[in-house]
Design a protein that fits this description.
Layout lengths: L2 H21 L6 H25 L2 H4 L12 H20 L7 H22 L1
Helix pairs in contact: 1-2, 1-5, 2-4, 2-5, 4-5
């Protein structure tokens, strides 16, 4: 996967994460939205870069033969990396005083946005 493709997908993930957080989670704190967007941008780039550097992109990129949701291990890795990165960034950043359940919900919504973009758009 080329760097411009990775960046475009990650950028779309960031926009989707912000939209999902605003529309579904009703998040209004700019610091939380910026942190989630940054994680949704950075974490897919890191995961896909690891796959490229190790030459494992071909091993992880076989889509499930289920047309409505053709997910692959590469897509799943994007979601897991995004979930972990967002949760850590929120816990040490703008949500350090929030309830763990709230942080987990915000991180999960961000990861879901990254997964959906990864599965369907690149």
């Amino acid at each position: 996967m080329s760097l411009p493709t990775m960046f475009l997908g990650a950028l779309l993930s960031a926009f989707a994460a912000v939209a999902l957080l605003v529309l579904v989670r009703r998040e209004r704190r700019v610091s939380v939205l910026v942190t989630a967007a940054g994680s949704a941008l950075l974490m897919p780039m890191i995961w896909n870069s690891i796959l490229n550097w190790t030459g494992a992109i071909g091993l992880f990129s076989h889509d499930l033969p289920f047309a409505p949701f053709p997910v692959s291990w590469q897509d799943t890795g994007t979601a897991v990396f995004t979930l972990a990165g967002t949760a850590v960034a929120l816990m040490i950043g703008p949500c350090r005083h929030d309830a763990p359940r709230s942080i987990a919900g915000t991180a999960a919504a961000t990861a879901l946005a990254a997964l959906i973009i990864d599965v369907y758009l690149y």
